[in-house]
Structures are given as structure tokens and as C-alpha cells.
Amino acid sequence: MSLIQQLKALADENRLKILQMLLNGDLCVGALARHLGISKPAVSQHLRVLRKAGLVKGEKRGYWTHYVVERETMSRIAEQIQAMSSDGRSNQTFCWRISDSPPENHQE
Q1: Theoretical Cys-Cys bridge with 56: which of 29, 41, 50, 64, CB 3.0 to 4.6 Å?
Q2: What is the Cα–Cα distance from 68 to 63, expressed in whole angstroms?
Q3: Per-residue pLDDT tens for 25-74?
Q4: CB atoms within 10 A of CB 2
Q5: Domain annotation for the chain: domains and CATH numbers
Q6: Per-residue model confidence as pLDDT tens digits over 75-92
Q7: DSSP readout, the chain?
């Protein structure tokens, strides 16, 4: 799954809330629905998007499936975003060197 597709999966308030709750521990659909105040089918749809993006996985425990965050995937996304930020600063410094001085109006 590409970074763009993963970021699109994160581009929803309820999905971000689900991830935030799951970072504190595993939860089932019913618990997530109660905490969010939305229906179980709606939670299931959000989880489907997050699973497809590789951001969460379900672990069957008896009758219920408990969902957990794929922390390795989340770390890779954070690293890719950080790398883009760092690359931007390098390019900016390169541009300053070309012009021999930073722009007067530049703010970081």
C-alpha cells in the first residue's frame, strides 16, 4: 500500500479517533462504537479501510475480534513524513547557497 493510500485512510476524523483509542489497547467493534457514538456497521467500515491500508489488524478471541494498531506500519509512515520534512530543509538550504544569502522574508 502506498503512502498516499495510507494517508487517505487516515483522512477521516472517526478513523483517527479509532487509531487513537487502539493505541491505548485492543478493542472490539462494540466498544469502539460505544466510545465513538456511531453504529457497529459504521465502525466495521472504518476498520475495513484501516485494515486495507495496513494500519490495524484483527485478532480473533473467542466470539469477538479485537483490533490492534500495526505499530510497525505507523512508524514507517512517520519516518516517511519526517524524511520529506528533512528533505525540504535540505532543498531550502541548497537554494540559499545558490543565491548566496537566505531570503529576507523567510520564516521557518
Answers
A1: 50
A2: 16
A3: 999 999 999 999 999 999 999 999 999 999 999 999 999 999 999 999 99
A4: 8
A5: 3-70 (1.10.10.10)
A6: 999 898 888 877 655 555
A7: --HHHHHHHH-SHHHHHHHHHHHTS-EEHHHHHHHHTS-HHHHHHHHHHHHHTTSEEEEEETTEEEEEE-HHHHHHHHHHHHHHHHHHHHHHHHHHHHHTS--TT---
